[in-house]
Design brief:
Shape of chain A: rod-shaped
Number of helices of chain A: 1
Strand content of chain B: under 5%
Shape of chain B: globular
Distance between the termini of chain A: 57 Å
Radius of gyration of chain B: 25 Å
Number of strands of chain B: 0
CATH superfamily of the largest domain in chain B: Sodium/glucose cotransporter
Number of helices of chain B: 22
Helix content of chain A: over 70%
Radius of gyration of chain A: 17 Å
CATH architecture of the largest domain in chain B: Up-down Bundle
Order of helices and strands of chain A: H
Largest sheet of chain B: none
Oligomer: heterodimer
Helix content of chain B: over 70%
Distance between the termini of chain B: 74 Å
Number of domains of chain B: 3
Structural class of chain A: mainly alpha
Order of helices and strands of chain B: HHHHHHHHHHHHHHHHHHHHHH
């Protein structure tokens, strides 16, 4: 089954959003990591 | 090194060359040699992209930097996932649909031949010199660690890589990159587990992290805004974003990787693979530096990690040098004691007091090492001396078991070779497609292009080895090469932004915009203290601004 152009576009938009959410999670993780062990 | 370690290193070299040659297919045409017949799976391209980016100096330099300065360098990569998303929606489809061999070829389709020639010329000059530095940096360190002459390590890394790149083209490069990335990641994981096992029984990983935190080695995010500070959240998210857009979107050494994928979507996925994996991988590398830092809390560290420089300094005034060593050893023992006391009393009423004692002992240790480093600088008349790049290899050689040493040395070589092969491959492609086919032999057959591509790979390989031998004696040239790259990158990105998103931009605008952008960055770098990452932003915006202005002026004159 092939994707219609509209579906294909939506699929990639979802993938890009996932990447951006991932990068936000990374920043939060790094911040919490440094806060946990800072004294 | 033990015979077993040497056997592992030599076996690795033979295996990589043999496998690179064996798996090279579709190489009997220019399309096969330069683009692998556009037949590579996304994960191969993705690993090749990551391997190209991670040179040996990234591997050993980053661990040393984490040891000395902490994990703040991780912020440099924060903009990378965003850059990849932007490139997936812009550069990838533009290049892929244009059916080009090089990124600069696209500029001729969009603007004119002179813009293509100028950008490819700057790429050849900057990358041609940079690949020499990429070989030289680990070759110097490995020669010292392995007790070999520098020219031997340069020849081993440079010529063996040239050989399989010349024979097998981009396919050999990509498949060798996959193996090399596997060796690197496996080597790093083994290194983490063995280092953890060497900690004293009363120190858990959690305790180790508390010590590193108290020594301010775990500060990964710095929200302060300072243009002169190289690694902050803002420089990573914004300035480095421009660097990554330029590196992955306009530098042929990376563009050529994803042009080899089977389809546009596979090209995109290969870039997104880097977006997901690069930061965790870099975190792992920096984390090893932190583990080495903790390891040397409980095992006496060398005062100077570069043993050649250390012994040269010692013979000048042995008495004073031994005084420095005594001071350094005392500082180490005080710090060790303070760290053990702090951990043993965590959660008790004396924690605060013991924490400040530890912090003081850490500062005293840093002061003792700085005093020794300053003395080395003075005696050797070298203000730029530092031994950061020697910390990781010396740690491995002195503390890892037999077999693991060979594996990690092979991983360092793999990191160097994976970058060098992609650079040579892209230099050969640009020389062939943007110079030879464009200016020397426009009617050349496919066979001519293929033959020239192989010869160009060989010549660039030899040139890189010569540059590597030369730069080992000229530290300042390395700086010149790196600076030249930062002048070029932002402005190059500006030209591609004009090409992709400014329909009104014309050839003269792009051409002169690039030149003025580069000159502006050069002037700014000479008269300001702005951190180099921001030059990418400045160069990009000046090129876009000047390019649009010239384009509109010329248009007005035409009218």
């Amino acid at each position: 089954m092939t994707f219609q152009p509209g579906n294909e576009e939506k699929k990639w938009t979802r993938i890009y959003k996932t990447v951006l959410v991932f990068s936000i999670i990374i920043v939060i993780f790094l911040y919490l990591f440094s806060q946990t062990y800072s004294s | 090194m033990h015979l077993l370690d040497w056997t592992i290193v030599v076996s690795y070299l033979i295996y990589v060359i043999w496998h690179g040659l064996k798996l090279s297919q579709n190489k009997e045409s220019a399309f096969g040699f330069f683009l692998g017949g556009r037949n590579l799976p996304w994960w191969t391209v993705g690993l090749s992209i990551m391997a190209t980016q991670m040179s040996a100096i990234t591997l050993i330099g980053a661990t040393g930097q984490a040891y000395e300065d902490g994990m703040r360098f991780i912020q440099f990569y924060l903009g990378l996932p965003i850059a990849m998303v932007i490139l997936c929606t812009t550069a990838v489809p533009y290049f892929y649909k244009a059916r080009v061999f090089t990124a600069y070829e696209y500029l001729e389709n969009r603007f004119d031949a002179k813009t293509r020639t100028l950008t490819s010329f700057f790429f050849l000059v900057s990358r041609g010199l940079a690949v020499g530095v990429i070989i030289a940096a680990p070759a110097v360190i490995l020669s010292l660690i392995l007790g070999l002459e520098e020219w031997i390590t340069i020849i081993v890394i440079g010529l063996s890589t040239t050989f399989y790149t010349m024979k097998g083209g981009v396919q050999a490069v990509a498949w060798a990159d996959v193996k090399q990335m596997t060796i690197i990641i496996f080597g790093l994981l083994v290194c983490v587990s063995i280092t953890l096992s060497t900690f004293p029984s009363e120190i858990s990983l959690n305790d180790a992290l508390y010590i590193a935190g108290a020594a301010e080695r775990l500060q990964t995010i710095d929200f302060s805004f300072d243009l002169n500070e190289p690694y902050t959240f803002w420089s990573g998210m914004f300035a480095a974003l421009f660097l990554f857009l330029s590196y992955f979107g306009c530098d042929q050494s990376q563009v050529q990787r994803y042009l080899c994928a089977k389809s546009i979507n596979e090209s995109r996925i290969s870039l997104l693979m880097s977006a997901f994996l690069k930061i965790p991988l870099q975190f792992l590398i920096l984390f090893i530096g932190i583990l080495v830092f903790i390891f040397y809390h409980f095992n006496s560290p060398p005062m100077i990690f570069n043993k050649n420089v250390a012994s040269n300094t010692e013979v000048i005034n042995p008495g004073y040098y031994h005084d420095l060593e005594k001071k350094h050893l005392d500082a180490y023992q005080d710090r060790r004691e303070a760290a053990l006391n702090f951990i043993a009393n965590r959660g008790t009423s004396s924690e605060e007091f013991l924490l400040s004692s530890y912090k003081k002992s850490q500062l005293d240790y840093v002061k003792a090492r700085k005093e020794a480093t300053d003395y080395v600088r003075l005696i050797n008349d070298d203000n730029n001396f530092n031994d950061i790049n020697y910390i990781f290899p010396v740690f491995i050689l002195q503390n890892m078991p037999i077999g693991v040493i060979g594996m990690i040395m092979a991983a360092i070589m793999a990191a160097a070779m994976s970058s060098v092969s992609s650079e040579l491959n892209s230099l050969a492609t640009t020389s062939t497609m943007d110079i030879y086919r464009q200016h020397i032999n426009p009617k050349g057959s496919d066979e001519d292009l293929l033959r020239f591509g192989k010869i160009a790979t060989f010549i660039w390989g030899i040139f890189a080895c010569f540059v590597a031998m030369y730069v080992t004696n000229l530290g300042s040239l390395i700086e010149v090469v790196n600076k030249f790259g930062s002048f070029f990158y932002g402005s190059l990105l500006g030209v591609f932004v004009l090409a992709f998103s400014a329909p009104k931009a014309n050839a003269n605008g792009a051409f002169y915009g690039l030149i003025i952008g580069m000159i502006s960055v050069w002037i700014m770098s000479s008269y300001s203290e702005i951190a180099f990452l921001w030059f990418n932003v400045i160069g990009c915006f000046i090129t876009i601004g000047v390019g649009l202005l010239i384009s509109m002026t010329v248009k007005k004159n035409d009218e």
